[in-house]
Design goal:
CATH architecture: 3-Layer(aba) Sandwich
Low-confidence stretches: none
Shape: globular
Strand content: 5-15%
Helix content: 40-55%
Bound molecules: adenosine monophosphate, magnesium ion
Distance between the termini: 46 Å
């Protein structure tokens, strides 16, 4: 069992990503094959917990996934939720905002995607892009994005107060590993579709992105919406950690089975 608390960023603590090793294995001593078997097993347990969450109908769960390109947000979702009933989870991807989205405040498109009762929502990118790419690319003036850390904390406080359990994962891939993964995309004909030359422009801004992530994570990791910095250079370990975080989160909810109809225990179906 991995102690995930070491990946959790305590509220109010500064974050230096140089101190977070993307190849860290924490206290895990098993092999890669054992790790992978554990992920499959945990995915089935997550499925059972999701059904309980749905039956209980009083809680909402939000998983926020943020990362640099190639860190594996999609692949993490596939592995962690592989055995989970698709009815119970909803993935919301956040791409470049449309004209209609840009005509509203930046949380408008986000709020409409938050989970309802009994539901798990996964944000593949999120409102954090509005203090990440928006900051690095100067898409709005600094005086605008600076205010957003407070907005985001207030927004997440609102969601938590109204019954949403929030966990946020930054998949921490190294600059070197990203080079290998981007190269693999170019080298493999079946992966080329994933590559855009714009990815290399973003890569050139790596230090700016790291600075933006460090500030976002340190200013918005709270007790009710904690950030985890997940080592992501080993795909299987990344999946294992995110899976463990979700199991702990759902396992920590006070889930009940709804009261059955009265008197049905004596019914014999003929
Ligand atoms: P992908 O997740 O690889 O399909 O890429 C989605 C792209 O949309 C990324 O380059 C993001 O940085 C970009 N994106 C997401 N949210 C925003 C936003 N609020 N403003 C500008 N770009 C965004
Ligand atoms: Mg991309």
């Amino acid at each position: 069992m991995i102690d995930i608390s070491r990946f959790r960023v305590p509220p109010g603590q500064g974050v230096d990503l140089a101190d977070h090793d993307p190849r860290d294995l924490a206290d895990f001593t098993g092999s890669k094959a054992e790790g992978k078997a554990l992920i499959r097993d945990q995915s089935h347990r997550l499925d059972a917990l999701q059904e309980h969450l749905y039956a209980d109908g009083r809680h909402r769960v939000l998983l926020v996934l943020q990362a640099m390109d190639t860190a594996g947000k999609d692949s993490t979702i596939r592995h962690v939720f592989g055995a989970v009933d698709p009815i119970g989870v909803r993935v919301a991807p956040f791409k470049k905002p449309s004209e209609r989205e840009l005509a509203h405040d930046y949380l408008w498109r986000v709020h409409s995607q938050v989970p309802g009762n009994g539901e798990i929502a996964i944000f593949n990118r999120s409102h954090y892009e509005d203090v990440l790419v928006v900051r690095v690319r100067s898409l709005v003036p600094e005086e605008s994005w600076r205010k957003r850390y407070d907005h985001i904390n207030d927004f997440e406080r609102l969601l938590a107060d109204e019954g949403t359990t929030i966990v946020k994962c930054f998949l921490n891939v190294s600059f070197e590993e990203q080079a290998e993964r981007l190269q693999a995309r170019i080298d493999r004909p079946d992966k080329r579709w994933k590559f855009s030359s714009g990815d290399l422009d973003e890569r050139k801004l790596w230090p700016d992105y790291m600075a933006a992530y460090e500030e976002a994570i340190s200013r918005t990791s709270t007790d009710h919406a904690p950030w985890y910095v997940v080592p992501a250079d080993r795909k299987w370990f990344r999946n294992l950690v995110v899976s463990r975080i979700l199991l702990d989160t759902l396992g920590g909810l006070d889930l009940d089975w709804p009261e059955p109809e009265e008197g049905i225990e004596d019914i014999v179906v003929v």
